[in-house]
Design goal:
This protein is mainly β. It folds into three domains: 129 residues, no CATH class; 116 residues, SH3 type barrels (Roll), CATH 2.30.30; 125 residues, Immunoglobulin-like. The protein is built from three helices and 32 strands. A nine-stranded antiparallel beta barrel has the order 1-2-19-15-16-14-10-11-9. A five-stranded antiparallel beta sheet has the order 21-20-25-30-29, with no helix packed on it. The protein has a four-stranded antiparallel beta sheet with strand order 22-23-28-27.
Length: 425
Amino acid sequence: MKRISLIFCCALLSCAFAEAKTTQRITMKNGSVYQGYISRQTGNGTFEVVTDQAMVVLDNRWVASQQTAPVAGQQLDSVWFKWAEGNDAFQNDALLLTDIALRPEPIKATEFVTLPFRTNKNFTKVRLLERGTIVKFLELTPNQYELSWEDVSTVQGTQREKTALSGINRIYQLKDGRRIEGEYAGETQHTVSVFGADGIVETFLFDDILKCNYRALNSKQDILEQTPLLDVIETKTGEIRGLVIEQDYSSGNASNDAFLVRDELGTIQSVRISDIRAVRKVANDKEDIVFDVKMNPGELMINRQSADLQTVTETNDRFVFDSLSHQIIVPLNGNPAVSVTVEYLEAGSGSNVERFQLVQIQRDTVKKQNIHYFDYRSLVNNVVRPSSLETSVNGTVKAEYTVSGPAAYALYDPQSGDAFMFIVR
């Protein structure tokens, strides 16, 4: 039962072909690779995986027929077209794809290559990669496979992007007293691995686990918004849909071990493992992973638009712009005020730092020429304060302002003398 339970929450794995809920890379002992997520498990040693991409290896004796034909580039879906371009696979503006049918009668597995799946019999428009004694093909069409744990070599995840501000870590309490926290990195039939904070993978036995908790990285988001998949727990009395937030194996009696499940309404329920018939995964439509913007020193972004450093000349008590840049326009859309997000790098600060002062730019006529400026009086008396200010783990400061318009505004750093601007209209 522990094998069923400890596969739950995995790290997001980048999929090169589809924007789907791909969270795991499952490599079989025969070389087949399935990218997707484990959607269902029972206690009979098998599991189902929903795939976005699969590379399947077969013994040629299991193949009843193969039919290969060119498909014109304009008739390909975007996934196959992108693959063909990236792999220089077009021939006369067409891609060769194959239909494969397997024999309906069971074929005895050999030492040469074991049966990689149990239910699939036909494959349409796959890319043949190898033929002869071995048949290997690439499938980019979503599919579902039933696999056996005995045939699995590894299940892998990848580290989330460094700019991700959402996600879920696992916290393991082991029998030897160790407490290990990290992001899911993978597993085998007997072990589980996590990425530590230092980036080093730590691996330990399933049987050494007393308890596993799940922690949301972003305290300002609901935990259900930080996972690509939801858990569906099938019990003797019905289903619970949500997210497993704790798995407890410390009772000493397997029948009393339990899960804590946070359902979609926010209620936390305890479910004994002995009452679980099966667990499965479904795509989470409420997923809302927040990403930090990757900043360089000296760079500043206004509403995720890169702002140019402006030339400012100090004359008496005025800071005069060479010109009024129209690079960044913040639209009012008929409203009297608008929210503006300013982001910049404050590496190594360790705390929220308001580096810039936000002031409205004024206009004057000097010697029959229009000038645009702000002055010391504005910096003292009329600075717009941020409604929120936070620094991410990546050192990016994010300041939220509410400004009225139409007007032009300057962001001024009194220490460096740097100035940026934007126009609200």
